[in-house]
Amino acid sequence: MDSRPVALVTGGAQRIGRAIALELAAAGWAVAVHYRGSAEQADETVAMVRSAGGSARCFPADLADEAQCEALLPAVRAACARVDAVVNNASLFEYDDVASFGYAAMEAHWRANTGPAIVLARALARAGGGVVVNLLDQKLWNPNPDYLSYTLSKAALEAATTLLAQALAPGVRVCGVAPGVTLLSGEMSGSEFNAAHRMTPLQRSSTPQDVARAVRFLIESPAITGTTLLVDGGQHLQPQARDVMFLARGDREPHAKLP
């Protein structure tokens, strides 16, 4: 991968992860594109980077498996000779609420969304240091009880961003980016997404490119650590009792029906 600095982007095969990989590659970074099951999409991302004159390669791992997560950054370093940045973008996003909550859902979200970021930040510190950017969610500053386990895992990740910044300084900077409604996901329809995307003071939420530019800014800003950029069109400024998917459907009543 030549002498360019190397960024590991988890979940870099598609969606926001792909936009981040392309943004960093355009800025002169070699990109290690992590994927779990999206091998074809990962190959496409690598091809897109290379066709633009950049450097990239794929690295598979199931980050919910602790051993595979522990092995990922050393594998990237062995293949690329260095790792300078980690972008924790891979995420599990499945619905539950208070009524449907269970330990299995909580653990699955923790293993996907929280634990890997800590393991990879620690591995980066052991490899010589660099910068970590964690992808969070604006709803941590504008909470509602939908997607309960997901939200708890991202709240833990936001706290971990601060704690890791303290624990790993000065060798590692740790920052966060909190997008708003960025891409269609879950059970949201196209029309619901379009409506939800406009539910902000700026009448637009974030795009993948907005998020990617924010990630690049933090990576390239050596005086910033332990803080999060909210990239959401101001969505966090508007209290919302439910997830925007339900608001876009006109459903404002609490979803949880307790026995």
N-to-C series of helices and strands: EHEHEHEHHEHEHHEH
User: Per CATH, what is the topology?
Assistant: Rossmann fold
Unreliable segments of 5+ consecutive residues: none
In this structure, how is the largest beta sheet organized? 7 strands, parallel
Content of β-strand: 5-15%
CATH-wise, what's the superfamily?
NAD(P)-binding Rossmann-like Domain
CATH classification class: Alpha Beta
Number of helix segments?
9
Number of strands: 7
CA-atom Rg in angstroms: 18 Å
How far the N terminus sits from the C terminus, by CA atoms, comes to 58 Å
Main sheet strand line-up: 3-2-1-4-5-6-7
| Helix content range | 40-55%
Number of self-contained structural domains: 1
User: What's the average pLDDT?
Assistant: 92
Just name the CATH architecture.
Answer: 3-Layer(aba) Sandwich
Shape: globular
Feature tags:
Rossmann fold; 9 helices; 7 strands; 14% strand
What can you tell me about this protein's structure?
This protein is of the alpha/beta class and 259 residues long. The chain has a single domain, classed as Rossmann fold. Strands 3-2-1-4-5-6-7 form a seven-stranded parallel beta sheet, with helices on both faces. α1 packs across α8 and α5 runs parallel beside α6. The mean pLDDT is 92.
